[in-house]
Amino acid sequence: MTSTIKAIPDIVIGRLPLYLRALAYMIEENREFVSSQELGDRLGISSVQIRKDLSYFGEFGKQGTGYEIQFLRQQLRQILHADKVWEIALVGAGDLGHALIRYEEFCEKGFCIAVVFDRDPQKIGRKMGGFEVFDAESIPTIVKERGIKVAIIAVPASEAQAVSDILVKAGVRAILNYAPITLSVPPKVQVQYINPIIQLQHMAYYLD
Amino acid sequence: MTSTIKAIPDIVIGRLPLYLRALAYMIEENREFVSSQELGDRLGISSVQIRKDLSYFGEFGKQGTGYEIQFLRQQLRQILHADKVWEIALVGAGDLGHALIRYEEFCEKGFCIAVVFDRDPQKIGRKMGGFEVFDAESIPTIVKERGIKVAIIAVPASEAQAVSDILVKAGVRAILNYAPITLSVPPKVQVQYINPIIQLQHMAYYLD
DNA sequence: TAGATTGTTAATCGATTAACAATC
DNA sequence: TAGATTGTTAATCGATTAACAATC
């Protein structure tokens, strides 16, 4: 009999960063312990769901007292690979790309923009927020050379799929896509979408 | 016997804007008809799911030929209230707020920033991308006066809940929140979150 | 000990999909 | 008509939650 691999649902993985974030705030508040109940209240998630989610990875709590915040945070950081620095390739140096470069939170959280690409000759070679803008043609060589695994796409919708294909071919395994289009990627590649308009339209349904 | 209200699942509502977006691209491509199969392929959604989703609202297709794109788009626009212009209150005129002001796509899609607020005396009264920055103190009066129902929060996490409370009290019913915190709002109020770091952490789990 | 809270099983709830009649 | 595709029912799949023993 082969060992049973119980894959962890992606929806569970998606909640872990929320737990991590809440724990970070609690550390700032000099809290030492937290119950699943309190953590859940803070996040609008049931306590049982939090316990179930965490139980996929181990037993981190103590009956009667809850979770030691520092310890749980450390565990979650390891699980999410949030305890290391990931280099990011940013493709697209327009208004949006520029704003993303200035957004310091990325690097503070371990996702540091390392190279910026654009295909506009007006931008190539110029500096933007401390970064030289490289020709998009050089994505394959630079991304491979530096072993970059994470990219942010901030180009127009019409170019996003082509950029995605190039990034994937160069070894990128996770893409944060700001372009308003669904990307087609191989299963081994993760994609997440940033789509304020889609979210506004979602909410507008409930308005009258 | 009372009439049975079959509420439409929120997860279904959340997919409608994706359908709408794909249809808009197809119109640009001068397409006239589309099958649920093709629409699904484009979005990475099964054709059966698309048909099921649409069937909550009516029968929009024709056996053998699929959906008339212009017609379906019009229907979805109505359903999502995307056929009107929504005025937006933007709270927070920092780097992020500034970038959001410059982002024209919002207004093109019917979500037009109408007022900008900040509490920094350095910013109040100054112009930013064509908008005067108003004192956050005046949120209640201005939002009520103009009947604004949709807001974007772009303030630091520490202030976001307070801002949210004020907006809700002033009549806002939908909030797009860029602050990294879960907001507590009454059930009648919709909230959507923009959280690139949470999404990057989610993907990083799958990297090694 | 008594009270609090975890970790987990089983039940429930909800969403997706397979199958297919209807029909353009 | 034959082929294509819709709309819908029933089955399946997966996620959440209720209940509770274990234990700090």
What is the share of helical residues of chain A?
40-55%
Largest sheet data of chain A: 7 strands, mixed
Strand residue percentage of chain A: 15-25%
SSE order of chain A, one letter for each helix or strand = HEHHEEHEHHEEEHEHEEH
Q: Write down the CATH class of the largest domain in chain A.
A: Alpha Beta
Number of extended strands of chain A? 10
CATH homology superfamily of the largest domain in chain A: NAD(P)-binding Rossmann-like Domain
Q: How far is the first residue's CA from the last residue's CA of chain A?
A: 58 Å
Topology:
The structure is a homodimer of 208-residue chains.
Chain A: H1 10-28, E1 33-34, H2 36-43, H3 47-55, E2 61-62, E3 66-68, H4 69-79, E4 86-91, H5 95-102, H6 105-108, E5 111-118, E6 127-128, E7 131-135, H7 139-146, E8 150-153, H8 157-169, E9 174-177, E10 190-193, H9 196-204
Parallel strand pairs in A: 4-5, 4-8, 5-7, 8-9, 9-10
Antiparallel strand pairs in A: 1-3, 2-3, 6-7
Chain A binds a DNA duplex (24 and 24 nucleotides) through α3 and β2.
Structure description:
2 copies of one chain form a homodimer. Chain A has 208 residues and is of the alpha/beta class. Chain A has 2 domains: 5-79, Winged helix-like DNA-binding domain superfamily/Winged helix DNA-binding domain (Arc Repressor Mutant, subunit A); 86-198, 3-Layer(aba) Sandwich (Rossmann fold), CATH 3.40.50.720. The first copy, chain A, has 9 helices and 10 strands. In chain A, strands 6-7-5-4-8-9-10 form a 7-stranded mixed sheet. In chain A, helix 1 runs antiparallel to helix 4 and helix 2 crosses helix 3 (47-55). Chain A is elongated, with a radius of gyration of 20 Å. Chain A starts with 9 loop residues before the first helix and ends with a helix. The model of chain A has no long low-confidence stretch (mean pLDDT 96). Chains A and B meet through helix 1, helix 5, strand 9, strand 10 and helix 9 of A and helix 1, helix 5, strand 9, strand 10 and helix 9 of B.
